[in-house]
Amino acid sequence: MTTFANSLLRIEQLEISCQHDGKWRPIVQDVSFQVFPGEIVALTGPSGCGKSLTAHAIVGLLEAGSRVTNGQVFYQDRDILTYNIHDWQQLRREEIALLIQHSLNGLNPIRTVRKQMVETVSQRKQSTSKKELDMYLCSLLQQVGFTDPESVLASYPFQLSGGMRQRVLLAMMVSLQPKILIADEPTTALDVINRERVLSLLKKLQHDFGLAVLLISHDQQSVKRLADRVIQMDRGAIIR
Ligand SMILES: Nc1ncnc2c1ncn2[C@@H]1O[C@H](COP(=O)(O)OP(=O)(O)OP(=O)(O)O)[C@@H](O)[C@H]1O
Ligand SMILES: [Mg+2]
């Protein structure tokens, strides 16, 4: 991992400021790190240190009241902080997938898994027959460990456990074939068994597709088990 030029993602002296009581002040400061193709890098640190802000900045999804005030983010040597809305959308559709924190609420409660998966899959795949599409959806669900994909497709989110919903979201992300997945606390809300399942799945995706993962987690056990490399943040900066 010594070649500097081949990194997939390179963050340089990133500074993100947030607005509090009408004043902007830096929350994330001088954060620099790289992610190389196919590796799992953990970004860890105490609550509030700026991990989610960093993740959102990378994919152009900072909320109102927060913005990048210094530094650069390169994806395959392209300076993506200069991107417009269209470029960001394409980047998120084709290159970098973000599994947001609290993503268990990320599925629409009143639509079946099939409907929601079709919507995501059609961003990437040309229209095919219904039968072909169903086979494809089933194969995606099988890849994330479901043995009865038909019944999952027909389900509404509330009929699935938290771990199952997280795996459905991961299946949707797999269909976008990203080069890098940023998973923001993907296991925090899960029980031990589902935590293990999701972690094993991330490892499998790395192995099968050469997927790079930026795993944001304060669960030290998960981090130790999974990460090839650990980046430690504290109060907005990298400490090691
Ligand atoms: N849109 C915003 N406007 C103002 N302040 C914000 C905004 N988003 C985040 N912050 C502040 O920035 C700090 C860092 O938030 P962030 O969500 O990145 O932390 P985190 O490291 O992901 O924490 P956790 O481990 O709890 O998820 C917090 O103190 C938060 O209050
Ligand atoms: Mg967070």
UniProtKB/TrEMBL annotation:
Keyword Cell inner membrane: yes
Alphabetized PANTHER family for the sequence: ATPASE AAA-TYPE CORE DOMAIN-CONTAINING PROTEIN, OLIGOPEPTIDE TRANSPORT ATP-BINDING PROTEIN APPD
Annotated coiled-coil segments of the chain: none
Family label: Belongs to the ABC transporter superfamily.
Localization: Cell membrane
Name under which the protein is recorded: ATP-binding cassette domain-containing protein
Alphabetized GO MF terms: ATP binding
Entries under InterPro entries matching the protein: AAA+_ATPase, ABC_Ni/Peptide_Import, ABC_transporter-like_ATP-bd, ABC_transporter-like_CS, P-loop_NTPase
ATP-binding is among the record's keywords: yes
UniProt entry keywords in alphabetical sequence: ATP-binding, Cell inner membrane, Cell membrane, Membrane, Nucleotide-binding, Translocase, Transport
Species lineage: Bacteria, Bacillati, Bacillota, Bacilli, Bacillales
ABC transporter domain residues: 9-239
Membrane topology: Peripheral membrane protein
